[in-house]
Amino acid sequence: MQTPALDRSLETPPLLVLLSLVTAGCMAAAVYMIFFVAPPEVLMGFVQKIFYFHVPSAWCLFLGVMVACVGSVGFLARRTDRWDRLGDAGTELAILFGTLVLMSGPLWGRKAWGAFWVWDVRLTSTLVLVLTMVAAKIVRGYAGPSARQIAAGLTVFAVLNSIFVYYSVDIWRGTHPPKVVQNKLDPEMAKVFWFCVATYVLGFGCLLWLRLRMGVLKTALDRLHMMATEVGIHD
């Protein structure tokens, strides 16, 4: 009776395929617009184009932390695998986009500040945020029976840290530039920037769907393994 349900879970949703193709097309268009449409910045020149990768990655980092927190709170309240999968997926995506932020930021900073890294409040708190999500992922795998509860607690802490990261440039006027919404971008720059933001968010949604689907397939595979084991025992 369970086999048809498992077979249906193995089918790839057509909408997911379409979303993946649209995301790939938008990514290609975004790269073209960054290098051939957006004008070079007056002071930083060509290096400023890292901005179109760096800032959308940072926004997706925040989005990943929020998704992880929602999943974690849902798991703490309901203790179901569906919420746990959402929290785990959000954690992994936060690590992915956080890594992109920490890689692209120093490349930009080398031109702006003359150093790949300075211990600015925004930079330091972002590093702590990404390391918190990495810790949540590690704890989930190695902390034993209470691993998921501890990981959920870490993601809730990460949300508080992400709020601090976002407003840190307003409280402490460090070396990091102010928030993008406070700056007036050139119209061509703004057009490319918001297209990149939309593309990254679309990519985030696509990756989240794929990661959740992987969790469902893993659950189905574990169930098949248990059924095969039971058959072997009875035989």
Please provide a written account of the structure.
The structure is a single chain. By secondary structure, this protein is mostly helical. It has one domain (19-34, 45-224). It has helices spanning 3-10, 14-36, 51-78, 81-113, 121-142, 147-171, 187-234. Helix 2 (14-36) runs antiparallel to helix 7. The longest helix is centred in the last third of the chain and has 48 residues, at 187-234. It is globular and about 70 Å long. It starts with a helix and ends with a helix. The model is unreliable at 1-6 (pLDDT under 50).
Features of the shown structure:
single chain; 235 residues; mainly alpha; 80% helix; 0% strand
User: Would you count the extended β strands for me?
Assistant: 0
Largest sheet: none
Low-confidence stretches: 1-6
First-residue to last-residue Cα separation: 20 Å
Residue share in helix = over 70%
Strand content: under 5%
Average pLDDT rating: 86
Structural class: mainly alpha
- Our Rg estimate from Cα atoms comes to 21 Å
**Sequence of secondary-structure elements:** HHHHHHH
Helical run tally = 7
How many domains?
Answer: 1
What best-fitting shape do the alpha-carbon axes yield? Answer: globular
